[in-house]
Structures are given as C-alpha cells and as structure tokens.
Design goal:
This protein has 654 residues and is of the alpha+beta class. Helix content is 36%, strand content 20%.
C-alpha cells in the first residue's frame, strides 16, 4: 500500500537524520514526502495510525499533567566530586564483590531531564518524566514530537526505555536568539530549557524546541532486560534508539579514570552539555548482589566535573527592559574565557541580588558557566579602587516612563504598555482571543505592523487601514478585510475585556470583571484612589497600588483617551445575577467538554450567577471535568471537591 510505503520511507529518513546523523536527502525533499503522506491520509482518514510520522504533533493544548507511577523507581545516583571519591566507590564495589572480577560501563552524563518511555505492540504508549522517582508526569503528546524517539519499533513485547531529554547547544542558541528577537528573556541554560520544553502544555511549542532523546536503560517488566548493561545499550541501538556513541566498557578503575579525563578535555567541543560521567557495573547479576542503599544504587556513581569559573571585573551595570516591563540589572564584564567561551555579560536578576553580593562597578568577581550561556556572578573577591555603587533608575531607561516596585515584589517594572521594549507582547495580549478577539491579528502580523512602525502603541490598532495591511507580507485584500472586520467588531466588546487588555499588572479576567461591575466605567476606575479600589472584591493593597500606578502614568492616560476616541466600549451595566441557580457557587473548568467550549461553559455559569476560577482551592464549589483533564482534577480529588461532567453542569444550569 502506498501510504505504508511512504511511512516506512519517512521513518527510515527520520532515523538516518535524527539518530545516526547521516541524512540521505535534503530537508526540502523530506518535507515533500511528508506533505504527500499528509495528503493521502487527509483523503483516507480511516487509514491514519498513531505511529505515522504525521502524528508526532497533534491535539489541543492541555490543562495540566496527570501523574502516574513508574514501573520501578527511577533512582538518582550518588556523586563523586573528585578522583579520590571515585576510588573510594571502586574500593567499596571490590570489597562487596569479594575480589570477583567485574567491569564498568562509562557513559557521558548528559545535562537534561530523565524520561521513561513505554512500548507495547511495537508502538510508543506512554512517556513519563522522572518526577519524584516514584511517580512522574504523563508527557506522551510532547514526547511524540521528539524525532529521535521512535514511535514504532520492531519489538512487539512490552518494554520500557529510560533516557535523557536534552536540547543541543546549537538548538539552544537558536531558541535564545529567537526569544531575544521577540523581546523575551533568554533561557539560562540548556537543561532548564529542555525540562521546560518537555512540560509545555502545547505539544506544538515542544515540537518547535527541537528536543533530543538519548536512551540509557532497557527494562522489561520493570527490571533490566539484558544480562549486561553494555548489551542493553547495543540492543536499544539496534531497535532504532539514539544511544550515545561516547561510551566505553572499562576493565578497571584506571580505564574509567582515563575515560573521564579524555572527555573532560573534550567537554567544550561536544554538541551538547555534560556535567560528568556515569559509571555502572556492567553485569546485572552483580548489580543485584551489590544492591541499593536507601537513596542510591551501590553499583553506579556519577562523577561530576568541576563547575567552570573564572575571575573578571564588572566594568559597568546597566538595566534592560523585558517583555513584561521587568527591569533587570545586567553586569558588563571585562571579557574573560570560561571553559573555552568568551563571556562579557551576566544577569544580576534584581537589586536585592546586587545587595546580597555586595557588588559595585569596578569590583573583581568570580563568574561561573555551569552550562549557562550567560554566566552568573558567584561572589565578589576584591573591591575595585574606584567603586561605583549601583542604583535602579527612577524611570524606564527605554521610554522614560514611570517604574514601580509593588510591595512584596523584588522586580521593578515599567508600566507603560506602549514602551517599545514590551510593545509586541502588549499588542498580542490585547488582540488575543480571550481579550479583544481580533481575528487574524496573530504573532506574525503583530511583528510586521510593529516592525514597520504602523503600530507604536495599542491604540494604533484602530488607526490601521485595509490598504496598509494588504501591502504586508503574506497578506492580501481578503486577509486584510478579515483583520479590519475583527478590529471593528472588537469595539463592541464589553468593558471587562478592555480592562484586561490594558495589561495592568495583577489585573486579569476576573479582576477586570469585578472592577467593571463595581465602578461601571473606565473613567471611574481611572479616578479611584487606593482606598476606593480596595472596596472591590478581591482587590487588596498590592493590586490597588498597581492599578493606581498604571493610571497615574501619562502614557497610559493618553492610551485610554485614544481608545475612547476610537469608539471602544468603556462603560458597563452590571447584570444582577444574584437570583440565578448558581449564585454563590465557584466553578473550575478542566479538560475538553463534549459540546461546550471553555468560553461557552464559562459564559453559561456566569449568566446563572456563578463564578469561574482558574485554580482549585477549598473555596471551589465544583470542578467541571472533560476529557484529558489535568492536575486540577487531581487537586479536586485531594480536597474532596465534587466533580461534574458536562451533563451534570447542564442539569444544574436548568
């Protein structure tokens, strides 16, 4: 059959490219084959199989992750921080085995996130994060996006493979470059990036991160499936898994030390981050006889390489403004080589961190690059002869707008939503479906209208013309008309959506609703002082301070005036729903309901007098759960909160 032949060919090319790193065809040719398969499957949806290369990414974002038990504990390893501690480990193994001959398997310790993947009938069935070692989070949809993890294997009997999910240095650098271009903060290191990417609620986001999977354990019924660990690694490679070629069977501790020293010297030339070497006794029978302590196996150890550090001078400290308006101090360093990489800057996080370090411009500091692209300042080792103390700026260094640090917070923020440093994010939020629902004004179009200077602030959205939009890349007259219709329609949306769209810190959908209900107009909210704001339900000192600071800023005052001139709905008539069937009840929605969308269910509940919250607490009356319900359902069960399906919700509404 043509479809199955195409699938087999695509799987072969995936293995060549992502596992063996020896592609036979170009990316364009691979994409052409994939599109051909997509076309055939679209015409014959009954022939789509879960292991098809087209099914690596699919489905809507999830609410959360379900926790499931591991087939056997995923234990951590004891560490050896120097060669002496490794020799002590070797001595203990020799003593416990009473002089019996044995050998080690040495493997690089990749710096990522451990994951277990279960297979049955030759197909990937389940993937779990390590979690606490006993239970992990079900990340199967995200794991399916990892091209080096086979969806289909030749072994039909059930087995489990454990390994490390990582992001390569090249993919990590590209990801950070993209985030910087979008005005987003850079990720600190590949490990955190890989861990966060695997736990994304949207598999399509995970797919874009280009994660990789290296297998290192093979289990059958929760126990090793081969008599020797080295044989298990070879077996996994034969099944099509990516197994690190940088591994070696060592006859004694001297050969193990030679392997450790060899790859420490190569550490900075590898395509991925490592933080050491793992040594395991090769024989599974000997592993079982060596046994485990309460925390660690006695037959394995992780030799940790020393953190990479160097001394340099902080020549200057300035402040960068992030996408949320956060002001972050950054140290400009005298360029220094740290483990083969020249570094010249480091984030200092916030002014409290600078105070903790006792740092000033001109000081000599120790910087560490333990996998970090931007190293961190560890400590001050000498004060400079011409020290210059740092103080946070009184105004935003980008737009000169007002900056605030709410009580209890460590971050100063620029509250001008039109600040160039945060403009794209502000426009995306304002236009999003849950806020002003401007059809067609998505990420790519926002980038274009901002980059070309057509939108310099949120209110400029309402000055756009169809001709301006039609002239942009990948736009035409019809697309432009659709966006213009969405812009016009947004003017009729109620005031709570406008308030939410302003991007006031700590003011989301729920707070926007109660503010509109209480004051009745944006003009009244704009004039209210903090005591008046605190009369509103759920508005405390931190939120009232944030609202007041927002409307005290002249840039935001001008923004509100322009939105009023554009004809948006800035008044609100509160609907009395106190007599509704759900009055006084608080609901939390999770999962996918059979017939109602999330917004539709929320609207029905609120129309009946109920409230919808985003998180489960003791104050929650009911949790409404659909398919693929996540952690909110687990929390409801823990707190013994009643759980409804859609039919039960409809019954209460009636």
């Amino acid at each position: 059959m043509e479809i199955e032949q195409l699938r087999a060919e695509l799987r072969r090319h995936e293995h060549l490219y992502y596992v063996l790193d020896s592609p036979e065809i170009s990316d364009a040719d691979y994409d052409k084959l994939l599109r051909e398969l997509q076309k055939l499957e679209s015409a014959h949806p009954e022939l789509i199989t879960p292991d098809s290369p087209t099914q690596r990414v699919g489905g809507a974002p999830r609410e959360g992750f379900i926790k499931l038990p591991h087939s056997s504990p995923m234990l951590s390893l004891d560490n050896a921080l120097n060669e002496g501690e490794l020799l002590d480990f070797d001595r203990r193994v020799r003593e416990l085995l009473a002089g019996e001959p044995f050998q080690y398997v040495a493997e690089l310790k990749l710096d990522g996130l451990s994951m277990a993947a279960r297979y049955a009938d030759g197909q990937l069935q389940l993937a779990l994060t390590r979690g606490d070692g006993a239970t992990g989070e079900d990340v199967t949809p995200n794991a399916r996006t990892i091209r080096s993890l086979p969806l289909r294997v030749s072994e039909s009997t059930p087995f489990e493979v454990r390994g490390e999910v990582i992001i390569s240095n090249l993919a990590f650098q590209r990801l950070n470059d993209e985030r910087e271009q979008e005005g987003l903060p850079r990720y600190a290191n590949p490990r955190n990036s890989a861990a966060g990417s695997l736990r994304m609620l949207d598999p399509q986001v995970t797919a874009a991160r280009k994660l990789d999977f290296y297998a290192y354990f093979y289990l059958v019924n929760g126990v090793p499936g081969q008599p020797h660990h080295s044989l298990a690694l070879n077996h996994l490679a034969a099944l099509g898994f990516k197994v690190n070629s940088a591994r070696r069977v060592c006859a004694n501790v001297d050969e193990l030390l030679a392997f450790i020293r060899e790859f420490e010297a190569q550490r900075d030339t590898l395509p991925y981050e490592i933080d050491g070497v793992v040594a395991k006794v090769d024989s599974i029978d000997q592993q079982n006889r060596l046994g485990w302590t309460a925390k660690f196996p006695r037959w394995a150890i992780a030799f940790k390489y020393a953190a990479r550090q160097a001394e340099t001078v902080v020549e200057k400290i300035d402040v960068q403004v992030g996408r949320t308006g956060a002001l972050t101090p950054v140290a400009h360093l005298r360029p220094v080589e740290v483990s083969g990489v020249t570094v010249s800057r480091s984030t200092l996080h916030n002014e409290d961190e600078i105070a903790r370090l006792g740092l000033a411009e001109g000081d000599t500091v120790v910087v560490e690059r333990s996998g970090d692209v931007i190293p961190k300042v560890i400590r001050v080792v000498a004060h400079g002869t011409d020290r210059r103390l740092f103080t946070m700026p009184a105004a935003c260094p980008v737009c000169q707008g007002h900056v605030v640090r709410p009580e209890g917070e460590v971050i100063w923020r620029c509250i001008n939503v039109n600040c160039p440093a945060r403009l794209k994010n502000s426009v995306r939020h304002f236009a999003s479906r849950a806020v002003m629902d401007i059809t067609g004004l998505g990420r790519e179009l926002v980038d274009q209208v901002v980059d070309k200077g057509l939108v310099r602030g949120i209110a400029d959205i309402y000055q756009l013309t169809a001709d301006q939009l039609a002239a942009l890349e990948r736009m035409g007259a019809k697309s432009a008309e659709r966006v213009m219709a969405g812009i016009e329609k947004s003017k009729t949306l109620p005031l709570p959506r406008v308030i939410n769209g302003l991007g006031i810190p700590f003011v989301g959908e729920r707070t926007a609703q109660v503010l509109a209900d209480h004051f009745g107009s944006l003009a009244a909210i704009r004039l209210a002082d903090e005591p008046a704001l605190q009369q509103v339900e759920d508005v405390g000192p931190k939120v009232s301070q944030s609202i007041r600071a927002f409307f005290d800023d002249e840039h935001n005052q001008a923004l509100v005036d322009r939105l009023n001139d554009a004809g948006l709905t800035l008044t609100h008539q509160k609907v009395d729903r106190s007599g509704g069937p759900l009055a006084g009840l608080t609901f939390v929605l999770t999962g996918t309901l059979p017939t109602l969308s999330r917004d539709e269910a929320k609207a029905l509940i609120e129309a009946a007098g109920g409230k919808v919250s985003g998180s489960v607490s003791k104050k929650t009356s009911y949790v409404v759960a659909g398919e693929e319900a996540g952690s909110k359902l687990d929390k409801a069960r823990e707190l013994n909160i009643p759980i409804l399906d859609e039919a039960a919700l409809q019954a209460k509404l009636e």
